[in-house]
Amino acid sequence: MRTLILFLLFAAPAGAGELKLTLKAAEESALATSGQYQSAKLSAESAAAGAAAASTLLYPRLALEGSLRYASVVPQINLPPVMGGPKPMGDNWNYSIGPSAYWTLDTGALRYGRDASRRSAEARSAEAEAARRQTVLKARAAYFRLQLALEKTYLIGEDLKLAQSQLKDVELGVKAGSRSRLDGIRARQEATSRRRDLVRARADLGTALRDLAFETGIALPDYSGLPLDARMTGGGYDGGPGPLVRAEAYEEMIPALMPAASRPLDGELPTVTALAKSEASFRASALAQKRELLPRLTLGARSSIDYPNGPNIYSFLQNSASLALALPLFESGRQADRAREARLNAEAAAARRGDALRAAGRDYASALEDYNALMEEQTINVDAVDDADEAARLAYEAYKAGAGTWLDVESANLKALQAKTTLASANAEILLKLALLDSLTGSVK
Asked: Does 276 score more than 60 pLDDT?
C-alpha cells in the first residue's frame, strides 16, 4: 500500500525535479506508516478476537480425550481351583479413548465475563478510531505548515524580483546622474535584505518538508541545496539546486473543509466512547467476579473405548454422563478484591470520561471562535493587501517622478510583503482550525 501511494505521489505529472504533494496522499501515507495508529488498530483486532473467545465459554465444548497407563502390579483374586484358580483383576496396560462433551451451566460469571470482553473490544476499537483521527490531524497540520512555508518563500521571491528590478532602474539613474548614490546603496541594501530573507524562508521550507515526511512517512528523494516553491521555476535564485515543491492551493482546500465549521460537536467522540466502554467493561467484570462465588454446575457426557473390562482382558464401549458441582468455600477474599478492583477501575474511567467530554467541548468552542475571528480578519487582510500593493505602486511612481524618497518606496514594499504574509498566515491558521473542527465533528475520513 505504501509503495503504491509513494509511486502515485512522485510519479504524478509534474515538472522536471518537481515534488508534488497532495493532502490526500499525505493522509493515506500517514495512516499506512503510523506506528501509533497501526498499534491501536491491531490492539482492537486482538480485543475483538478475545471477546469472541470469551463468548464460546457459554456453549458446550467437545473434545477427544484419551489416556494410557501402565501398572507394574496387577491385583488378582484367588478363586478355588474349580473356578479356575487365581485370576488377575485387569492388565498391566490400561487405556481409554473417546469423545467427551461438557457444558457449564452459567450462573452469570461467564455471561458477564463475555460482556466485559465485548465492551473492552469496543473500547479498543474506539481508541483505534481516536488514533486514526489524531494521525490524520497531525498529517494535515504538517501539510498546512508546509503550505505556509511555500507561500512565504514564493512571496519573498516575488518581492526579491521587484527589488532587483527597481535596483536596476535606480542604478541606471545613478549612472545618468538623475539619482543620488545614496539611493543606489539603499536600493541595493533592500535587494540584499530580500535575498537574505529568501535564504531563511527556503531553510524554513526545508524544515517544514522534513516535518511533513516525519509525520506522514513520505520518503523524500535525496537532494542537496535548499527547496524552492515550484512556481519559482527558472527564477535564477541563489541557494543551490534544491527540489521544486508544489502543494495544493489554499483556494482549493478551504472550501472543502469549511462544512466542518457548521457541524455540531460529535456526540460519540472516540476518546469519550473508549472511556465509556471501558467503564462498562469494568462494571461487567465486577459482576462476573461476584458471580464466581455462586455454585458452578458442569454437565458431561462421554463415549469411549476402554481396556480392559475389569478382569476381562478385552476392550469395550463405555458411555457415561456426569454432573459436577463446584462451590467456593474459602479463598482469602480473592474474588471480593477482584470485584472491588474492577469497580474502582470503572469509577476511574467514568471520571476520565467526564474530563474528556469537557475538554472536547472546550476545544470545539475555542476552535470555532478562532475560526470565525480569522474569517472576519481575512476580509480586513484582503483589503490591507490591496491597499499595500497600491501604496507600493504609487510610492515608486512618485519616486520616479521626483515627488518621493527611496525610503518611502522601501517602506511601502515592506508593508506590502508583510500584508501578504499576514494573509497567508491567516489562511494556514484557518485550515488548522477547520482540520481540528473536522476531527471533533466526526467527519474525518
From this structure: yes
Return the pLDDT at 443: 67
The cell 533592500 sits on which residue? 190
Which residue type sits at 113?
G
Asked if omega into 308 is within 30° of 0 (cis), the reply is yes
HEC assignment per residue over the chain: CHHHHHHHHHCCCCCCCEEECCHHHHHHHHHHHCHHHHHHHHHHHHHHHHHHHHHHHHCCEEEEEEEEEECCCCCEECCCHHHCCCEECCCCEEEEEEEEEEEEECCCHHHHHHHHHHHHHHHHHHHHHHHHHHHHHHHHHHHHHHHHHHHHHHHHHHHHHHHHHHHHHHHHHHHHCCCCHHHHHHHHHHHHHHHHHHHHHHHHHHHHHHHHHHHHCCCCCCCCCCCEEHHHCCCCCCCCCCCEEECCCHHHHHHHHHHHHHCCCCCCCHHHHHHHHHHHHHHHHHHHHHHCCCCEEEEEEEEEEEECECCECCCEEEEEEEEEEECCCCCCCHHHHHHHHHHHHHHHHHHHHHHHHHHHHHHHHHHHHHHHHHHHHHHHHHHHHHHHHHHHHHHHHHHHCCCCCHHHHHHHHHHHHHHHHHHHHHHHHHHHHHHHHHHHCCCCC
Task: Assess if residue 73 is contained within a domain.
Answer: no
The CA distance from 75 to 65, in Å, is 26
Specify the CATH number for the domain of residue 27: 1.20.1600.10
**Residue 15 scores a pLDDT above 50:** no
Average pLDDT, the chain: 89
Instruction: Give pTM, 2 decimals.
Output: 0.83
pLDDT above 50: residue 207: yes
- CA 255 vs. chain centroid, Å, equals 24
Q: Residue 239 above 70 pLDDT?
A: no
Confidence class for position 338, pLDDT limits 50, 70, 90? confident
Judge whether 77 lies within some domain: no
CA atoms within 13 A of residue 166's CA, in its CB half-sphere? 29
Residue 74 lies in a domain: no
Let me know if residue 377 belongs to a domain: yes
- Number of domains the chain contains: 1
What is the per-residue pLDDT across 392-442, written as a single tens digit (0 to 9) for each?
Answer: 999 999 998 888 888 999 999 999 999 999 999 999 999 999 999 999 997
What domain range includes position 359?
Answer: 2-67+93-440
